[in-house]
Amino acid sequence: MSKNRRNKLPISVADILVDDILDSTDKEILSEALEKHDDIDFEIEKTRKVINEAVMKSRKSRLNEAKEQFKNSRISKQKNNILSLSISDKRKLINQVKESVDSLTLAARNEEEMSESDANGVLQDLIDLGVIDESGNVK
Amino acid sequence: MQNINQQAENMDSTHLSREELEAAVLGISDADILRVSQIANSYTGSHEMEADDLVQEAIMRTLAGDRKTCPRDLPIVYFLAGVIKSIAHEEREKNKRKKNDEDSYQATLKQFNDEDCSTENDVLEQQLYNELEAIYEEDEEILLLILYLQEGESSSEIQKNEGWSETHYNSIRRRMRRKWNAHREQEKIS
């Protein structure tokens, strides 16, 4: 029999040994560990490290999920609103904003010459600056 | 930044919130750390995951928030034990399906030759039980218990069939674990 297999249990047997581990008192568990390991603190720290790393990994994964959700919600909001307008409507909107907000100095380029990507950039800047909302309403 | 599900989870007074769960996991006692480690080690037999991988996966699932969290009145180590057990059983089934697929061609050939068509996985599981018989050969009650477990009997059925009290059943189970631990230590030395 391979040495690797000699340390393995059928799952039904593992289940009942685990019940016994859970039923043992803290004192019994600690004294068993002392019999088994030369350095019990090292053993505890080893598993604690695995647990702490898993917690950190979980936090990171939740943060990435939240970032992704935030990004998707921004994209979908933008898609549903002004960025889905036709290029001529986008140009009109930029012109309206220029006329209605006196203090605003947009780059001198005539909006009629703006490419779609330039118009998207200007509209996104106006949203980010809080001049208009995602639906194109001047605030 | 909390979404609606997290807020609802926090309002549930019968279960720990995700934040409370994380605090419980990080604050686990030394004795419970040893329990978690022993539990994970007990479950490394029927699949390819190592004990540390089982612990890590259990913590990740526990904190993922896509399932019911730990009831307030349940010690965290019991909850983690349940998650580890569930992962081990899942992995075993996955492993079994994978091996069964790999074996299907060979099994078909064997059927044509009228030979034993047991899959490799069944044979390995049987070998694990056979090896236990060698370890526990001097303890008839443990051997009997293993026989029942191999047949998939529950602990209450075993106790009923054998007329064992709960205390007696627990003492057999304890002897079984002690002998197993001694065997593992012996294997490490040799």
Describe this structure in words.
The complex is a heterodimer of chains A (139) and B (190). Chain A is mostly helical and 139 residues long. Helices cover 66% and strands 0% of the residues of chain A. Chain A starts with 10 loop residues before the first helix and ends in an 11-residue tail after the last helix. The model of chain A has no long low-confidence stretch (mean pLDDT 84). Chain B has two domains: 2-96, no CATH class; 114-189. Chain B has helices at residues 4-11, 18-26, 30-42, 51-64, 76-112, 120-135, 140-150, 155-162, 166-189. Chain B contains nine helices and no strands.
Number of helices of chain A: 5
Low-confidence stretches of chain B: none
Please give the domain count of chain B.
2
So what's the overall shape of chain A? rod-shaped
The average pLDDT of chain B is 85
Succession of helices and strands of chain A = HHHHH
Number of strands of chain A: 0
Largest sheet of chain A: none
Order of helices and strands of chain B: HHHHHHHHH
- Average pLDDT level of chain A: 84
Distance between the termini of chain B: 55 Å
- Gross morphology of chain B is globular
What is the rounded distance between the termini of chain A?
77 Å
Strand content of chain B: under 5%
Counting DSSP H or I runs of 4 or more residues, the number of helices of chain B is: 9
> Pair with the most extensive interface?
A-B, 47 and 62 residues
Secondary structure: helix percent of chain A = 55-70%
Structural class of chain B: mainly alpha
Describe this protein with a few key phrases.
heterodimer, A: 139 residues, mainly alpha, rod-shaped, B: 190 residues, 9 helices, globular
